[in-house]
Design goal:
About 60% of the residues lie in helices and about 5% in strands. The protein is mainly alpha-helical and about 750 residues long. The longest helix is centred in the last third of the chain and has 29 residues.
Length: about 750
């Protein structure tokens, strides 16, 4: 990540750190979750929990108030987790987890935060929060998403933010500051994924909400933070005048409210310094960074990403000041921060970040891609961007303007994106994927009423969109609005850069205009997800089917209806998840631990090979189920199963992260183990070494699975023959429906 993006991340995390709406609204989460937990306790005739949530929050506030967070907050939070868990207070524990996510994020402790995010989502699911629209669930989703964003797990973060948006529409008032925090955090994600226009829109909405909710916007720390974040986003768009105004306004608010000793003041100082650097006001930049470093050290210590990033920015500002012959007093502060630069001091084409180097004016090379020609497959095979990126550009440049111009009264009701079948929907497409069903495309999802009114005409307008595009060296996609593929102005039936196969036409088409319900029915057989109380229906849905219904990206969803429907399919009931985990444990034991060794001893290579297949399938599925599909998605169909498993295993949040590699080793050795090694590179060594290695891996995987089951409190047994773990897991299934239990 470049310096500007890192500073952006730094400012956002200070502006929404562990002591404001983004995280301490864990108190609101506690209140909402507490009512749920108390109801559960009442129903079970249990005694009330003894963990004092308010006392915990007061103690944490006291640590931050005396600027002792760097040394005291971590141990305090860890002990609170133990206390809440020992007291059996699930609502209290959820509060502690929300606070811990914010603190760990502020400290750059992303590896440790993986357990906190996972625990929070699992706990919320266990408490029944994920099926509703409670404030507790909204707050938890926002905090989990922000932790994922800070760890640069952007796809998962964006999905969690969108889930939070859907919940917040129903659970929060229009002026609730958590809505502003959500818009602000979404803006950070868009900024870090090179979508500054969307980031700016989110930040302006966040600022509007906060100002509307504030008693005194001129002395409100959250208003100041929003100005800082907006300034940094405008800076990335080279809008220096607006960036300067918002950065100076933030500092003015801190001073008016006498808030200079707040940890968030550092973000305002560093933000203004960054703007000054872009304006080549090096003295002001140096002063701002120095002051920011002092505040960071006071509040968080020097061993943080924030301190290191700001120190690096300061070093570069000092170097540029020295080159310009400017001397800055070490004791100075940004005393004239609110003063606009003198006329002529701004350089509109100056860099908007601290780093200098490559010539920004060099002409990028481009790769042009035409569609509809006889050589289309060869041309598209050179397309250097992914299908999802191409789809988003096609929507932004062609689809969205078309709808605004021709269907203005429906623009606020049409959802757009790319979801469903196709390699690009999983994000795994490459040059080999571009020989069929590839090209600029997206889906438009309408309500039944809107489809009846405009569906056919909108489909015709979609098919008529130009599809000739070019991609420059930076991966930017540009469409030519005047492009046509033949003299008649009509596009060939393929409508993309490569032939459309029969499986992607007619009722199985993968893009264009759909009724929301029809779209999901075409993939799953259901207009909406089965009810949470219908486990037999959930068990009939393949994981790969659910993966196809919930993959891809949603580019726009003004009403939230499409995302809500999609979320329904992501929200697998926890009882169903546990039942599937039990089934997978049974198959791992039967195929891998029992039948595989026996088949090998019999010399039945075919049976052994099929046993390995069943073992690998069950184990891979178990990894996704243990990591919770709501968080990581479902295991896709066989072609992309291991691509998805490798991606999941590479995440710092992954549970059972080593299993994928172990499974691939088993498959590599399977030929030698099953057929004695002849012709498979084993020479005269025969099957014995491969068999021994495979058996060792199978048992090691079983050991790792048992450890994970224990960590999740799904078992108290150390038995590594996994069939005997099934009763322990099924003990946690709340429903009495026999379809969820093994015989």
């Amino acid at each position: 990540m470049d310096e500007e993006a890192l500073l952006k991340q730094f400012a956002a995390q200070f502006a929404h750190g562990p002591d404001d709406a983004d995280d301490t609204d864990a108190a609101a989460a506690a209140q909402g979750a507490d009512s749920t937990a108390n109801q559960v306790a009442d129903d079970a005739d249990q005694s009330p929990a003894t963990f004092d949530t308010q006392q915990f929050l007061n103690g944490l506030d006291a640590i931050f108030d005396r600027h002792a967070a760097a040394t005291e907050a971590g141990p305090y939070l860890e002990q609170a987790m133990v206390d809440a868990e020992n007291a059996g207070d699930e609502a209290g524990l959820l509060t502690v987890l929300n606070e811990t996510m914010g603190f760990y994020r502020s400290q750059g402790r992303h590896k440790e935060n993986q357990w906190i995010v996972q625990r929070a989502l699992e706990l919320a699911a266990r408490m029944g929060l994920t099926t509703g629209t409670s404030e507790a669930w909204a707050t938890t989703l926002i905090n989990c998403a922000t932790a994922m964003r800070a760890a640069q797990q952007y796809d998962q973060a964006e999905d969690l933010y969108h889930q939070a948006q859907s919940v917040c529409r129903h659970s929060l008032a229009p002026t609730d500051r958590r809505l502003a925090a959500l818009h602000n955090n979404l803006s950070m994600l868009y900024s870090e994924t090179n979508r500054p226009d969307k980031a700016e829109l989110e930040l302006r909405e966040a600022l509007r909400i906060i100002e509307a909710s504030s008693v005194n916007p001129d002395a409100d720390i959250d208003v100041a933070s929003s100005h800082t974040n907006l300034a940094l986003t405008l800076l990335t768009e080279h809008k220096l005048e607006g960036a300067h105004w918002h950065a100076a306004k933030a500092l003015e608010i801190y001073r008016t409210g006498h808030l200079e000793h707040s940890a968030h003041y550092a973000s305002a100082l560093a933000g203004f310094a960054q703007v000054c650097f872009a304006e080549r006001r090096h003295a002001d930049a140096v002063t701002g960074y120095r002051h920011a470093l002092a505040v960071i050290e006071e509040c968080y210590g020097k061993d943080t990403d924030y301190w290191r990033i700001t120190a690096d920015n300061l070093r570069q500002a000092e170097e540029e000041a020295a080159k310009a012959g400017v001397t800055v007093d070490n004791a100075g502060v940004a005393g004239d921060a609110g003063t606009p630069p003198q006329s002529g001091s701004r350089l509109p084409n100056s860099p908007a970040q601290g780093k200098t180097g490559a010539d920004a004016t060099s002409s990028p090379s481009t790769v042009s891609v035409s569609t509809g020609s006889a050589g289309a497959a060869e041309a598209v095979s050179a397309c250097p961007v992914s299908g999802l990126k191409l789809a988003r550009a096609f929507w932004t440049q062609m689809g969205k303007p078309m709808i605004a111009a021709k269907y203005p009264q429906y623009a606020g009701r049409i959802a757009a994106g790319l979801v469903g079948h196709g390699s690009e929907c999983y994000g795994f497409d490459d040059a080999y994927s571009q020989d069929h069903d590839f090209g600029p495309r997206f889906c438009l999802w309408l309500t039944d009423e809107d489809y009846a009114a405009i569906g056919e005409q909108l489909e015709a307008d979609y098919e008529a969109l130009p599809r000739k595009f070019s991609v420059d060296a930076q991966g930017r996609v540009t469409f030519e609005a005047h492009a046509r593929s033949d003299a008649s102005g009509a596009f060939p039936s393929a409508g993309a850069g490569s032939p459309v196969t029969p499986r992607a036409q007619g009722a199985n088409r993968r893009d264009g205009v759909f009724r929301i319900g029809d779209f999901f029915e075409s993939i799953t057989g259901y207009h909406t997800a089965p009810a949470q109380t219908a486990p037999h229906e959930w068990l009939m849905l393949q994981e790969s089917t659910l993966a196809a219904a919930t993959n891809g990206e949603v580019f726009a969803d003004p009403t939230g209806l499409f995302s809500k429907t999609r979320q329904g399919f992501k929200n697998m009931p926890d009882d169903v998840r546990l039942a599937l985990i039990s089934k997978r444990l049974g198959m791992i034991a039967q195929a891998g631990q029992y039948n595989l060794p026996r088949s090998l001893k019999r010399g039945d290579g075919a049976a052994a090979w099929l046993s390995i297949h069943e073992f690998v399938q069950a184990t891979a599925s178990l990894v996704f189920l243990v990591n919770v599909p709501m968080v990581v998605g479902y295991m896709p169909y066989y072609k992309w199963q291991f691509a998805a498993l490798r991606k999941l295993s590479g995440s710092m949040f992954a549970l059972l992260p080593n299993v994928g590699e172990q499974l691939e080793t088993v498959m590599r050795l399977s030929s030698a183990a099953c057929y004695g090694g002849a012709g498979f590179g084993e020479g005269g060594k025969g099957a014995a070494p491969a068999i021994e290695k495979i058996n060792d891996i199978v048992e090691q995987i079983a050991v790792d699975i048992v450890k994970e089951l224990k960590r999740e409190h799904l078992t108290t047994s150390g038995e590594t023959f996994l069939e005997w773990q099934r009763p322990y897991v099924e003990d946690h299934i709340a429903s009495d429906d026999p379809v969820l239990k093994s015989l």
